[in-house]
UniProtKB/TrEMBL annotation:
Pfam families: Flavodoxin_2. The lineage of its organism: Bacteria, Pseudomonadati, Pseudomonadota, Alphaproteobacteria, Hyphomicrobiales. Keywords: Oxidoreductase. This is NAD(P)H dehydrogenase. GO terms for cellular component: cytosol. Belongs to the NAD(P)H dehydrogenase (quinone) family.
C-alpha cells in the first residue's frame, strides 16, 4: 500500500520526528511505499494570500473559495499545492505527525491544510441541492482512504481525560478528525498519542516505539472512528442537524456525531 506521512516540528531531533521515523521505518519494513513531507524542512508557505492565485487579476478582490476553485479548475494553483494534492491522491493512507500546541496542530500544518484543500478538491465537491448537500463527511475526493494522527502532548493522560482540565483528547482532536479528515472522505483511525512528551526517557521512548510499530502494522485493519455519514440518513437536509427520528434528540456536542448503538432511536426515514 502507499502511505503519505506529513510531519510538523521545527527541530529535526524532536520527539515528533523521531516517532515519525519509527512509523516510516516500520511501514517500509512491511513493504509499503512511503512518501514523507517534513513541512519545516521544505519551508512550507503556511499563509493563504494572493501569491497562491497567480492568475487572479490584480484589480480583483481576493475571495479565497472562489479564487481557489477557479485556480483548481484552470490548473493554475501553485506547484507546491499541486504536488501535495498529487501526493494525497497517490496515497492509500495519510498520517499527520505533530505536537499538540495550544490545543491544536502547529500553524504550518494548518496552513498546509488551508492551501492544499482547494475548492473543488477537498470541498465544494458533489451535488448541492435540497436533498443532498455535497459529497462530504464520509464522501468526497479522498473517500476510500485512511487517515491517522501521531500526536505528542505535554500534559498527563489525566489532563486529557473525560474530566481533565484540558478537555478530553477526542474532543480536542475532533475538529481535525471530523473536519479536516472525515469531511473530504477519509476513514479516520483512532489517534496515537504520547502524553508527558517532555518527560520521555529512553525506556518510555522504546515502549512507545513498540506500540507505534504495532499501530503501523494494523494501519489497514484497525476499525475507524464510526462518524456518522452526512448522506447516510442521520441528518436533515439542508439544515444539517441530526434527525430526531434517527438519533436520540437529547444528544448534543461532538459525541453525538459518532455512531453508537445506544445513541440511535430507530431506522426510519428522516423528515427534512
Amino acid at each position: 500500500m502507499k502511505i503519505l506521512v506529513v510531519s510538523a516540528h521545527p527541530d529535526p531531533a524532536s520527539l515528533t520526528n523521531a516517532l515519525r521515523d519509527v512509523a516510516v521505518a516500520e511501514l517500509q519494513a512491511d513493504g509499503h511505499a512511503v512518501r514523507v513531507t517534513d513541512l519545516y524542512a521544505i519551508g512550507w508557505k503556511s499563509e493563504v494570500d494572493r501569491l497562491d492565485f497567480p492568475a487572479l487579476p490584480a484589480s480583483a478582490r481576493l475571495r479565497v473559495p472562489a479564487a481557489s476553485g477557479e485556480a483548481f479548475v484552470t490548473g493554475s494553483l501553485t506547484q507546491d499545492v499541486v504536488a501535495a494534492q498529487e501526493d494525497l491522491l497517490w496515497a492509500d493512507a495519510l498520517i499527520l505527525a505533530f505536537p499538540l500546541w495550544w490545543f491544536s496542530m502547529p500553524a504550518i500544518l494548518k496552513g498546509w491544510i488551508d492551501r492544499v484543500y482547494a475548492f473543488g478538491f477537498a470541498y465544494g465537491v458533489g451535488e448541492h441541492s435540497e436533498t443532498r448537500w455535497g459529497d462530504r463527511y464520509g464522501e468526497g475526493t479522498l473517500a476510500g482512504k485512511r487517515a491517522m494522527l501521531i500526536v505528542t502532548a505535554g500534559g498527563w493522560p489525566s489532563h486529557y481525560g473525560p474530566r481533565g482540565i484540558n478537555g478530553p483528547i477526542d474532543d480536542l482532536l475532533f475538529p481535525i478528525h471530523h473536519g479536516m479528515l472525515f469531511y473530504p472522505g477519509y476513514d479516520v483511525l483512532p489517534p496515537f498519542v504520547l502524553y508527558r512528551a517532555d518527560r520521555t526517557d529512553a525506556a518510555t521512548f522504546d515502549e512507545t516505539a513498540t506500540a507505534l510499530k504495532g499501530r503501523m502494522r494494523t494501519l489497514f485493519e484497525t476499525p475507524p472512528i464510526p462518524f456518522r455519514r452526512q448522506n447516510g440518513g442521520d441528518y436533515t437536509i439542508p439544515s444539517m442537524e441530526l434527525c430526531p427520528e434517527r438519533v436520540r434528540p437529547d444528544l448534543t456536542g461532538f459525541a453525538a456525531h459518532i455512531e453508537r448503538p445506544d445513541h440511535n432511536v430507530r431506522q426510519v426515514e428522516c423528515r427534512s
